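Form 7-S
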Amino acid sequence: MTLFHFGNCFALAYFPYFITYKCSGLSEYSAFWRCVQAGATYVLVQLGKEFLRATVDAADLGGLQLALGRGGGRGELRILVAALGWASAELLTSRCVPLWVGARGVEFDWRHLQMGLDSNISLVRHVAAAALLWASGRHDLPPRLRLPLGGLLAAAAYEGFLTGWAGQALGLGPWGALGLRALGAAALGLGALRLLVPLLPPP
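Output:
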């Protein structure tokens, strides 16, 4: 029954295209591969749009750098202040307010647990990103660490794009995508910790 339903949906979706191709005279000009090329161009443009959207999201690192520069005190305190303030504001604006507006007395469901776990993952990611930004401004950063630091900053900037793409490619559901985000945040945090520890003063 599922295969029949898929075939039915496929026919309903693509039959008008087939009729248009046959009845418009395009088939006489052997334009099938040109249509395929136009479709491939569309796919590339959509991927480019996703990449540009992810690049716009990378502006978050600039804002986090600005917040990091306004903090006072020791480096590790500045990292925590900037990351905690940034993550809590993101939590309030992107999760809590829409949930409160949309829920209106709806009882707890698994979405609330997912959102809670996702906010903890975001906190780890923001702390790691703030630590990386702080390390990038250090003059005593060894030259051998500059390339890994740049790679980790790029991963922090495009984390949403990379995990979203990987989640779709692997066909992950909401819980799988959450687990993938957790793995990405953990890898980012461990990488930031590995770069940060040599720069911190001894206790």
